[in-house]
């Protein structure tokens, strides 16, 4: 693996670059972090002295060493930057939210196909312990047919902070920030819905963007709610699933982001674990009796996302979170925004035969 490393560049070394990308690229033996785009503050070389810091995008795009680029800039720049990277012959990882529209997402996927390049979407919450545990419970079939589910992502941020990624119109908003995670998780678990109804609100004083969102996704055989708020001093369970034979309730208890922010170094091996008090609770019917049991949490590790990228680029493995996955998420997000504006149900209509 070490003889065939993927030379990689990141297009920013702020929060996501320093927390979610560089630490994992640095420890994975299949990657070599060689460059970063830093137009203003020069930070990356303090942590990674061998990385080239570019001030101009054209210079980075013309660096022939680079095989893979990470687009981790404000959301409204994702499309143009990813397009430029693909046109320069680079494979691309695009941070969530993938793009600002489904049309942009589909155009990037088609461009990658036309250039025989790989396009990845960064959805790290698929590798959270809580989400992996939900998938395990669904595979167990103890719930029977799931007919109702709720996915929540709550925080307590009662004051507007002015962050460029989360609290600026168009590129920000909690629907872009955390809604993109829970929509992706819902589509991963249950597929594309038939229609969406959404409600957005801004409850914090002087908030320029929504800080509350709630979606109802309709399927032929189930209903799924996707929601989040910035004013949850007491938070709802992250996952509530009701099937015809049982129910499962799980908190959002993955600690990877918290530990990374504290400066802890990640690992390819299990580098943290949930406490038993955070385990999910499963109740189901078995031979006429109601059974209750805790479900030990799966081990979450964002390293596995990067391992998947490596396996795709070097060994042709299926892409774990593809441009088409990003397109599906954007279809739901586009429909949700339209529903919130117009106050009605919006049907999901895919404009491609790539699904």
UniProtKB/TrEMBL annotation:
<protein>
    <submittedName>
        <fullName>Gfo/Idh/MocA family oxidoreductase</fullName>
    </submittedName>
</protein>
<feature type="transmembrane region" description="Helical">
    <location>
        <begin position="12"/>
        <end position="35"/>
    </location>
</feature>
<keyword id="KW-0560">Oxidoreductase</keyword>
<dbReference type="InterPro" id="IPR004104">
    <property type="entry name" value="Gfo/Idh/MocA-like_OxRdtase_C"/>
</dbReference>
<dbReference type="InterPro" id="IPR000683">
    <property type="entry name" value="Gfo/Idh/MocA-like_OxRdtase_N"/>
</dbReference>
<dbReference type="InterPro" id="IPR051317">
    <property type="entry name" value="Gfo/Idh/MocA_oxidoreduct"/>
</dbReference>
<comment type="similarity">
    <text>Belongs to the Gfo/Idh/MocA family.</text>
</comment>
<feature type="domain" description="Gfo/Idh/MocA-like oxidoreductase N-terminal">
    <location>
        <begin position="6"/>
        <end position="122"/>
    </location>
</feature>
<keyword id="KW-0472">Membrane</keyword>
<dbReference type="Pfam" id="PF02894">
    <property type="entry name" value="GFO_IDH_MocA_C"/>
</dbReference>
<dbReference type="InterPro" id="IPR036291">
    <property type="entry name" value="NAD(P)-bd_dom_sf"/>
</dbReference>
<feature type="domain" description="Gfo/Idh/MocA-like oxidoreductase C-terminal">
    <location>
        <begin position="138"/>
        <end position="348"/>
    </location>
</feature>
<dbReference type="Pfam" id="PF01408">
    <property type="entry name" value="GFO_IDH_MocA"/>
</dbReference>
<keyword id="KW-0812">Transmembrane</keyword>
<keyword id="KW-1133">Transmembrane helix</keyword>
């Amino acid at each position: 693996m070490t003889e065939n490393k993927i030379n990689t560049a990141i297009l920013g070394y702020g929060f996501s670059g320093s927390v979610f990308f560089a630490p994992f690229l640095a420890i994975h033996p299949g990657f070599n972090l060689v460059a970063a785009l830093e137009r203003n503050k020069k930070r990356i070389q303090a942590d990674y002295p061998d990385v080239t810091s570019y001030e101009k995008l054209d210079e980075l795009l013309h660096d022939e060493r680079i095989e893979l680029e990470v687009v981790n800039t404000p959301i409204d720049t994702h499309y143009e930057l990813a397009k430029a990277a693909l046109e320069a012959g680079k494979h691309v990882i695009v941070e969530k939210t993938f793009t600002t529209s489904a049309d942009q997402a589909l155009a990037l996927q088609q461009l990658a196909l036309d250039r025989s390049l790989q396009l990845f979407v960064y959805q790290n919450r698929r590798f959270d312990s809580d989400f992996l545990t939900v998938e395990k419970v669904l595979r167990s079939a103890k719930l029977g047919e799931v007919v109702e589910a709720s996915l929540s992502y709550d925080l307590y941020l009662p004051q507007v902070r002015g962050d460029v990624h989360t609290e600026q119109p168009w590129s920000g908003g909690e629907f872009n920030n955390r809604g993109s995670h829970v929509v992706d998780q819902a589509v991963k678990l249950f597929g594309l819905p038939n229609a969406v109804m959404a409600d957005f609100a801004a409850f914090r004083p002087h908030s320029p963007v929504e800080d509350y969102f709630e979606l109802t996704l309709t399927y032929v055989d189930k209903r799924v709610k996707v929601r989040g708020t910035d004013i949850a001093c007491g938070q709802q369970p992250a996952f509530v699933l009701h099937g015809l034979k049982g129910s499962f309730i799980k908190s959002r208890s993955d600690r990877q982001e918290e530990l990374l922010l504290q400066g802890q170094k990640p690992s390819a091996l299990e580098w943290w674990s949930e406490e038993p008090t955070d385990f999910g609770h499963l109740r189901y019917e078995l031979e006429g009796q109601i059974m209750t049991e805790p479900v030990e949490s799966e081990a979450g590790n964002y390293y596995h996302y990067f391992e998947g990228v490596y396996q795709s680029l070097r060994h042709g493995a299926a892409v774990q979170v593809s441009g088409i996955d990003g397109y599906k998420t954007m279809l739901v997000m586009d429909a949700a925004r339209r529903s919130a504006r117009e106050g009605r149900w919006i049907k999901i209509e895919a404009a491609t035969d790539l699904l």
